[in-house]
Amino acid sequence: MLIAILKEARGDETRVALTPDAVKSLAGKGFSVAVESNAGLQSGASDGDYQAAGATISQNRAELLACADVVPVVNLPPAEEQEKMKSGSVVIGFLRPLDDPAALTPAVKRGVTLFSMELVPRITRAQSMDALSSMATVAGYKAVIAAADHLPKLFPLLMTAAGTIPPAKVLVLGAGVAGLQAIATARRLGAVVEAYDVRAAAGEQVKSLGAKFIEVDLGGLQTEDKGGYAKELSPEALELGRQAIATAAKNVDLVITTAQVPGRRAPLMLPTAAVEGMRPGSIIFDLAAPAGGNCELTKCGETVIHHGVTIFGPANLPAEVPAHASMLYSRNLSNFMQLILKKGELSIDRADEIIAGSCVATGGEFVNEKVSAALAALKVHA
Ligand code: NAD
Fold it and tell me: What domains does the chain contain, in order, with CATH numbers?
């Protein structure tokens, strides 16, 4: 049983799937672990650290792909590498199965079993495997720190002999895991914070962090699904939110947007007119950029300046904090792997709710209904 850790192929990726701690635990259970040379370097783990944890280091990526039984990854390997993987092997990671299901096809055709960390059900037993929450926590924190660095103002209230500096005003859109972390971080830096979310439950959480919650009367609309996620809203309900947001945005220095609906384009919350109503020098930091953005002007991976407002659309924010992002992700992955690695062998119990929910493909076929529907929709539009 060989577990292989590859250097991530994606250009802007600095995280590694498993850290030396996780390797030590796997090696202690009798698994062979091979690490591609320098796989952990950017997240602070050297080849020597992996060797000390019990791994072998390989310069031969092609051989690792061909021989590995389990390949934990951050991102899906590119198509030409999927085609070289061992048939019957297992890949686990952020595979973006609902955003880009077609990208998985080479691995599926090769008979690789795919587990998506995005699809791990959010049940209590799977909390320790919740990699989305881990990365959202990192992103929410980093968004505030990066934005504070770019803001032409200070965050805290300062009383100086030269006069009083008022605290920065921050608006957070979407108060889920990333949004709540952004609120907490902005509060710790001394900002005055307000936030908006469609889920009523978010209101109490926002207030408990010392921020103001923007209430919008959606007429008792059911906004949350049974998994605790926001539902896709009607155009009317979305517009009510946008009006409240545009009013609030006029008076703030920084807007951090985090609103997402799983498997859909991110909801549009800040149209161009709302940006034009903001003060010059203010900043929008759009964490939903990879899902299409919450701001109409966001360009993923780019910085746009419009009417004096700077709009950041980071493509991979957790990768800007690689050490801790890798540490958390590695723990989530390790906890997941315990479900499928038993007594030194691969043992996949498809009846297990976590395995059933996260398994995208096995035996040459897609096995997840939502992913199959996303693929079918692609064929209809092709
Ligand atoms: P997410 O990343 O999918 O979305 C971020 C936020 O955007 C959510 O709070 C959502 O309500 C909000 N949003 C979506 N559309 C919106 C719109 N049009 N206007 C305003 N806000 C909008 O979600 P997430 O942060 O990963 O998780 C959301 C919630 O799920 C969490 O706050 C938590 O309550 C729950 N959760 C539960 C578990 C668990 O039980 N294991 C784990 C993680 C999260």
Answer: 2-129+323-381 (3.40.50.720), 136-315 (3.40.50.720)
Kindly state if the Cβ of 258 falls inside 6 Å of ligand 1. yes
Which residue, judged by its Cα, is nearest atom 9 of ligand 1? 176
Q: Which helix (H) or strand (E) segment is 278 a member of?
A: none
Q: Taking Cα atoms as reference points, which of 31, 117, 109, 103 lies closest to residue 68?
A: 31
Question: 261 CB under 6 A from ligand 1?
Answer: yes
Model confidence over 273-303: pLDDT tens digits? 999 999 999 999 999 999 999 999 999 999 9
Residue 270 alpha carbon to ligand 1 centre in Å: 18
CA-to-CA separations, 182 to 144, 195, 316, in angstroms, rounded: 6, 10, 16
Strand, helix or coil at 3? strand
Instruction: Determine the distance from the C-alpha atom of residue 90 to the mean position of all C-alpha atoms in its chain, rounded to a whole number.
Output: 22
Instruction: Tell whether ligand 1 has an atom less than 6 A from the beta carbon of residue 238.
Output: yes
* pLDDT band at residue 382 using 50, 70 and 90 as cut-offs: low
* Number of Cα atoms under 13 Å in the Cβ half of residue 34: 18
Write the pLDDT tens digit of every residue in 220-263: 788 888 777 888 888 888 999 999 999 999 999 999 999 998 87
